[in-house]
Write a structure and sequence with these properties.
It is a single chain. The protein is mainly α. The protein has 2 domains: about 30 residues; about 55 residues, no CATH class. The chain has 4 helices and no strands. The termini are far apart.
């Protein structure tokens, strides 16, 4: 019984690792701009709104797109969380 449970836990862990790795690489391979894809087909689809959404999502920061260790987030800054994206202040 113990061996069976350990096998199931190992399978679940491997499945979770596969899903995380798959999603990580999938979103780097998909072409296009995420901000324009989110707004396409809506009444808010214009260049100003796309630029604003890019800024809110942090896509205009080149350091976030690279894996360089020299790019650091300034102290005291906050990034957009999914619950605050699109919320006007």
């Amino acid at each position: 019984m113990r061996r069976y449970l350990l096998g199931k836990v190992a399978q679940a862990f491997l499945t979770l690792c596969f899903v995380i790795a798959f999603n990580f690489f999938l979103f780097r391979v998909v072409p296009g701009d995420p901000a324009s894809l989110l707004l396409r087909g809506t009444a808010a689809f214009n260049e100003d709104n796309v630029d604003q959404l890019r800024h809110e999502l942090g896509l205009d920061n080149r350091c976030r797109r690279s894996s360089s260790s020299t790019c650091r987030t300034p102290r005291g800054s906050t990034s957009a969380s999914p619950s605050t994206v699109g919320v006007r202040r």
